[in-house]
Amino acid sequence: MSHFPLTLTASRELAPGVHHYSFQRSDGEPMRYLPGQFIQVHFQHEGVLLRRSYSIATVPTQDEAAHADTERLVEIAVSFVPGGAATALFENLQPGEEIQASGPFGRFVLHEADRNQRYLLLATGTGVTPYRSMLPLIAERIAQRGQRFVLLFGARSPAELLYGDEFQAFAEATPGFVFHPCFSRSGRQPPGPDDRRGYVQGMLAELAPDPDGDIAYLCGNPDMVDAGFAALKEAGLPIPHIRREKYVSPPAPRRPPPPTPA
Fold it and tell me: Rounded to whole angstroms, how far apart are CA atoms 164 and 179?
């Protein structure tokens, strides 16, 4: 783990209230991390030093010609929260400006020792970003180990399906990877063959979780993570084979009280 500066190179809207940010480490050092880990962004807000955690969304490249440029790349997805301290930071951030970060942190990664037959990957909202980072490793696991992957990604509507086109393209190009968008309010018209309606955890029964062959990952809204964990335990998966990461919005910072008049 280390502290380092990040310079914003580009940003774009992913969905209403969600933006994708691309940074470069501006200290010249490589950004070494395991797909699934996260960084913390450090900033001042109203005189209080704050930290916010963001999963690394960067898709590592295998292109050696581009390696020198991409090894310092750090991409994250940020959900805007009205009145949020981090929202104020990112809404006003311009290309060329610098922020401070630390990391990487976390154990929400694919384990080298895993010899399971299938992974069940569940996500809601920006909880899908770790799986974007894992895509090259997923392709490698499929090719070298014959493991299979199913991604269940919950969104209220197609407009909120973050990186949906990328996951769909990866599924079409990668036998052994299935992508199920799960829409809880309004779906696509016409629906795709792998689209589902309802909440992510409600789709688990269709996949018939196998206690002997499956490992599950759950990332995103705490309600989804808790419900998915309960459903997977009920299906018989051992607790070590259910790996979780909850995304919780932090409370507003407490401002120091005003001085007491003498």
Answer: 9
Cis, peptide link before residue 104, omega less than 30° from 0: yes
Contacts of 207 (CB under 8 A, 6+ apart): 120, 150, 152
Q: What is the dihedral of CA 64, 65, 69, 74, to 10 degrees?
A: -40
DSSP 119: E
Answer whether 1's CB lies under 8 Å from 102's CB.
Answer: yes
Which residue type, as a one-letter code, is found at position 128? V
Specify the amino acid at residue 260: T
Q: Is the peptide bond before 190 cis (omega within 30 degrees of 0)?
A: yes
Tell me the DSSP string of 208-232: ---TTTEEEEEEE-HHHHHHHHHHH
Question: Which residue's entry shows tokens 């380092």?
Answer: 4
pLDDT in tens, 232-241: 999 999 999 9
User: Which domains are assigned to the chain?
Assistant: 2-105 (2.40.30.10), 118-245 (3.40.50.80)
Alpha carbon distance 87, 77 (integer Å): 12
First and final CA of the chain: distance in angstroms?
Answer: 46
Token couple for 56: 């690394």
Closest CA to 175 of 206, 211, 138, 200: 138
* DSSP 8-state assignment for residue 134: H
Q: What is the pLDDT of residues 153-195, one digit of tens each?
A: 999 999 999 999 999 999 999 999 999 999 999 888 899 999 9
Angle, helices 164-173/129-145, rounded to nearest 10 degrees: 0
- How much helix, strand and coil, in percent to the nearest 5, is found in the chain? 25, 35, 40
Residue 35, phi then psi, degrees to nearest 5: -55, 125
